[in-house]
Amino acid sequence: MPLPPPGKKISGRGGDASADKVIDYDQAVEDCTRKIEEDPSNYAAFYFRGVAHRRKGNHTQAVKDLSRAIDLKPRYIDALKERAFCNIALGHPDLAQKDFREILRYEPKMADAWNWLGEAYNRTSEYDEAIRHFTRAIELCMTHSDAYFNRGEAYIAKGQYATACYNKGYSFYHQGKLDKALQEFSAGIKADPGFELNYVGKGQTLEAMRCYNEAVNEYKKIIKSATDQTAWHVDYARKLLNELLDRM
Predict the structure, then answer these.
(1) pLDDT grade, residue 21 (50/70/90)?
(2) Which pTM was predicted?
(3) I need a surface site. Which of 19, 94, 135, 246 has the fewest CB within 10 A?
(4) HEC secondary structure over 48-98
């Protein structure tokens, strides 16, 4: 499928905006405990206490609080997500899978949740299932750098190195880390010159680096040597080449 130009990474790995702030989590636990004592039905207090415990590394206690929050407020997506990552930390990826699937019941077009579920399948060595979920995340968000990276990890586990380089290359590409992207695509070409998608990625990366003549050469390579001249990536390479030549 055609791919957009490089951009900023769009997804964190199970975090939230508050994770970048300096927070006294011990104090947060105390504050939330006081609110729970005042009102045992305060689902938000259970949630935030669970988050604080998770940040402190107390994953078992975090699961208890987050489970209580979910009991009090069904379809609590943030709590399901936090509990899932706690269970991964505790070595229970099967339980994490259940929570991520529950999130997808409510938000079937949530690209992050497809990626998280794929990560949980990676943890249980179910790599084909993981790849299927990473692919769905990418279909929903074509710049999802985490999903590309994780899909690359799954392909490494399956022994498909050139395909892994293609995915990791686009992970770096969509983060704007073009030097690393170029290294991955080049490594993929070296590992398997017949895996043509890496030439497209290398060409796009060189073009983004403003190495226009080198990009033209990569596009021409794939157009000249492609085994299937009707494949989408060949048409896409022609389109990229023509657009680049028009600008040069």
Answers:
(1) low
(2) 0.85
(3) 246
(4) HHHHHHHHHCCHHHHHHHHHHHHHHCCCCHHHHHHHHHHHHHCCCHHHHHH
